[in-house]
Amino acid sequence: MGQNDVLFERAQKTIPGGVNSPVRAFRQVGGTPRFVTRAKGPYFWDAEDKRYIDLIMSWGPMIVGHAHPEVVEAVQRAAETSFSYGAPTEGEIELAERLCELMPSVEQVRMVSSGTEATMSALRLARGHTGRDLIIKFEGCYHGHADSLLVKAGSGLLTFADSTQNAPSSGGVPHDLVKHTLVLPYNDVAALEEVFKNQGDHIAAVILEPIAGNMNLIQPASEFLGAMRSLTAKHGAVLIYDEVMTGFRVALGGAQSLQGITPDLTCLGKVMGGGMPMAAFGGKKEIMSKLAPLGNVYQAGTLSGNPVAVASGLKTLEIISRAGFYECLTAQTEKLMAGLKQAADKAHIPFAVDSVGGMFGFYFASKVPTSFEEVTKTNIDAFKKFFHAMLDEGVYLAPSAYEAGFTSIAHDNEVVAAIITAAEKAFKRM
Ligand SMILES: NCC(=O)CCC(=O)O
């Protein structure tokens, strides 16, 4: 028994399933989760001191690489002045100003501590603003684990549960609550038009991942986004872009900057905190001013705008704003995906790839899927074999075929070449 097995056995005694978030548990692929001891740049080391090239980067946040010296210094400096005040600081204003500058649709922003809090609060705000209850979400999109959003949800719910029923994806979620959640297929314009035609004036909000990253990576068609923007505007519903995953990862201005869409509200997290518990939601001032203490929509948090997390976020945003950052990140990620595809082709394995900025998807299928249904038809057994062969070779992929992958600016030519060499060996072994 190795040290990872020892720790996993010990963890399961006091932590349900041995993990603090289900996607870490290797449930789809089998085997023992790796217990991390340290990380630097594109690498982390496990409890057996084996080094891995990290291709999840904490599921997105670590876009400048692990333990970037400038971020570490900023965090240390902030930590020395206390971890939390529960009172406002100038750093919060600076971070809010920076977020509004980088995403012009965000006129005002409020900070929270996790992506779940951001989407949950945005939804409450949209309902408070419109005085309506109904919301629309899309199959396979995951917006954190707030009750209303756990219907046909992606991420861990797609990996572990039966997400094929139009019922709560999780136990503990009242049917009475999710009856206000309408679920439509991603990229289905006709379904969207139909719902707005019949119930448009009762819809508070449409929430979506503008590039879905919780059912592998799925891109939206531009007609789908265009229809969504015009239908929500016409019927007075709030369009919520959940950019927790895509914000500052696919481009400096998020997916909305690539798509030319101006949402009413945007949810942010992951990269904006540089790996600290930090998230935000923001958008039109007219809507944001409905929040307490100005308006009657309540939302709060002891650690919201936490000074250490603000320092980490501000420094991370500074680094990613430097000239050439996204050009380099995008080129390296594309090079990686092209290399993986070539290696699979050589081994005659049906394989497709996609990427946007520093976010990628690969699929054991002959073409890139465009919907939740297509993703569930990809070859999961082939994925499992590939996952374990890559793990043996020292490359850590998301332990599920239903999650996107993430690179960082530290994934340079040498690292990309090492991943491709590992993949050539892995495909041969399959
Ligand atoms: N799709 C997975 C994630 O975004 C990470 C959050 C989690 O642990 O569920």
Key structural traits:
single chain; 430 residues; alpha/beta; Aspartate Aminotransferase, domain 1; Aspartate Aminotransferase, domain 2; 2 domains; seven-stranded mixed β-sheet; four-stranded mixed β-sheet; 15 helices; binds 5-azanyl-4-oxidanylidene-pentanoic acid; EC 5.4.3.8; Glutamate-1-semialdehyde 2,1-aminomutase; transaminase activity
In words, what does this structure look like?
Its EC number is 5.4.3.8. 39% of the residues lie in helices and 14% in strands. With 430 residues, it is α/β, with parallel strands linked by helices. The strands form 3 sheets. It has a 7-stranded mixed sheet, with helices on both faces. A 4-stranded mixed sheet has the order 1-2-3-13. 49% of the residues are buried.
- Sheet with most strands: strand arrangement: 4-10-9-8-7-5-6
Shape: globular
The residue-averaged pLDDT reads 96
Radius of gyration: 21 Å
| Largest sheet geometry | 7 strands, mixed
**Termini distance?**
25 Å
- Write the CATH fold name of the largest domain: Aspartate Aminotransferase, domain 2
Which band does the percent of strand residues land in? Answer: 5-15%
Q: Topology as H/E string?
A: HEEEHHEHEHHEHEHEHEEHHHEEHHEEH
Structural class: alpha/beta
Q: Uncertain segments of ≥5 residues (pLDDT<50)?
A: none
Bound molecules: 5-azanyl-4-oxidanylidene-pentanoic acid
Number of strands: 14
Secondary-structure arrangement, i.e. CATH architecture of the largest domain: 3-Layer(aba) Sandwich
Pfam families: Aminotran_3 (PF00202)
Modified residues (N6-(pyridoxal phosphate)lysine): 270
Catalytic activity: (S)-4-amino-5-oxopentanoate = 5-aminolevulinate
Pathway: Porphyrin-containing compound metabolism; protoporphyrin-IX biosynthesis; 5-aminolevulinate from L-glutamyl-tRNA(Glu): step 2/2
